[in-house]
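Consortium newsletter contribution from the modelling node. Members have asked for a concrete example of what our holo predictions look like. Here is one, prepared for the calcium ion complex that several groups have been discussing at recent meetings.
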Amino acid sequence: MKTKTRFILLFLLFSGGLFAQSYSLNFDGQNDYVDLGNQLNFESINAFSIEAWIKIDNIGLQQIIAKLDGSLRGWGLQVNQGRLNAYLISEFGTNNIFVEGTTQLDDGRWHHVAMTYTGASIFLTEIRLYVDGQQEFTGSTGSFFVGSIANDGPATIGAYNSSGTPNEVWSGNIDNLKVWDHERNINQIRASKNDCGISDEEGLLAAYDFEDGINSNVLTDLSSNGIDGTLVNMDPATDWEDGHVRSSVQLRSGCQSYTWIDGITYTNTTNMATYPLSTPSGCDSVILLDLTILNVDTNVFLDSNTLSAGPTVDLYQWVDCANDFAPISGAVLQTFTPSESGEYAAIVAINGCVDTTSCIPVLITNTTSPEIFQGVQVFPNPSRGAVQIDLGNLNDVSLRVINALGRTIRVIPNINTSRYQLTLNEPPGLYLLELSHQGKKRIYKILRE
Ligand SMILES: [Ca+2]
Ligand SMILES: [Ca+2]
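And here is the predicted structure:
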């Protein structure tokens, strides 16, 4: 009934759009533990498996779950020196098995841990340890582990208590603890690790999702065996803390920016964003964003008549801003020296992230004269607007007027008069008059007063 009530409550919370609270128990490392009573009494011939989510930040010897009597006969799953341990004890010191994992668990993060035991047989007796879904110990426990591990001590979570005093108390959090009556395989352990709820599956001896929550003195067993635990020396008002929530990582990259499922547009590389997912089945999870924002260097420098785009770029294509950003044939290097005055930009790309630099005016003021322009005179200079162009004997001359931004502001083709008067109605400033004749060009600078 408790389970059903809880499910309905969660459903109401979810349908209200809230991210449901997920609880775990925090043990104080002093005397906190949960007493399950004289339960889970295995014999050494019995296969069994245990799994849990745990969080600790110190390497002390501490129990996840244990069942030991006054002579320390029994079994348990613990952390020692920050690493996962499992043990079976018939006679402490003379007939016992301790196996140890390799991963340091004392990093203050949630880890999924599991042990499986084959049960003793004349063929092979093995304990396997798993951390975060990876197997990290398999060992023969001795081909003839015989001797009873059965005892009348209490099964306890977060400590062992063989003689009325809690020992090796957990210092941190425990969540989603399950005990099975068979040897689980790695696929089952991984599935269980990613599972978000607990259902009464076959072979489940005890299962705790730690969702009893604030002010509950009871840790409810969700299996059909009803092995509820009692909080001992604990404060039910404060020891129910945030529990483990499933999480997954989304690896993403964006060009300049990236808009994620949270609706936020990120413009910087980050791995700090999280997004909660809730479903009516109570399957909470958190998605972590691992985002790389690619930024193309769009700086352009002009030195003399040569443009240079930024160096951290895979691809360059210089374009003519005045000509609808048309690509300039062959202008695909980091630097570009235009042959004509104008406004130029580069399309730049890195890792497929494409951007365009701003348009940079280039004024080519090289006025060295092809001989054919020797008789040409442009005056007065400075000018108040009327500019006389004496073309001498030249005909079929084109005139291009360029402003100080390199922008072509006027083109007059096919001038066939020996003296052409240009009227500059434009604002005061420097202007370039480019005369072209039979493919040859000369530029004249005119200052408009
Ligand atoms: Ca929980
Ligand atoms: Ca306490």
